[in-house]
Design brief:
Elements (H helix, E strand, L loop, with lengths): L10 E6 L4 E6 L24 E8 L4 H6 L1 H16 L6 E8 L3 E8 L17 H13 L4 E3 L10 E3 L6 E3 L20 H20 L1
Antiparallel strand pairs: 1-2, 3-5, 3-8, 4-5, 6-7
Helix pairs in contact: 2-4
Length: about 210
Amino acid sequence: MAEFNGGTPQMLTLSVTSRPIDFSYNIYNFVQARPDIVSFDISPCYQTGNRRKFDFTIPGQYKDLVDRNNKLFKYSALRSLVGFCAVSPLRISRLKIVYGKDVHIRFELLDRAPISGDVYTNTSETKLDLAAAFFIQTVNLHKFAIMIDYDKYSTTQYILATPNSIREFQYESELEQSTGYSPGALGGLTTGMAVAGGGIGAVMAFLFFK
């Protein structure tokens, strides 16, 4: 991360000599701090139906470990969701931690960008339902890991999400009545999962062994 030892920056100019690109940005109220990507929310750009909301848990024995550095745990959970769902971090929205008997992690999974934009090369994005299927299957197979590599005092390297703990909801008030996914609930998606399985396997290997 770059640091400024002089005055406050006022303008940033970006130029690419190989392309007709030349941008200038005026900077106001500059704050020299690490951007908080967990709090960056683009969900208002989407229609209500272009998202799915999930709640899942990790065992309650990790409450103190999570609470010791809630912000970094959320960031680590975001990294895992991005990797296992094969989506951009911007598509994980409203991530929150709720303490109960177990530790609940709630988030919204957004669909692909509603417009393609004006970039030269469009990136192929994972469809909403396929990204959700990746997430559900990984949790139910007891392979969804959240790394604890940010805590040098912890002897725990990662925490595995509780299998079959996922609850999908529209409103948080529904969570008391909703039910989880069974291990066989994704049988109809087996073919689609096989197509992208190699890529997700590589992501899981990276998260476990980096």
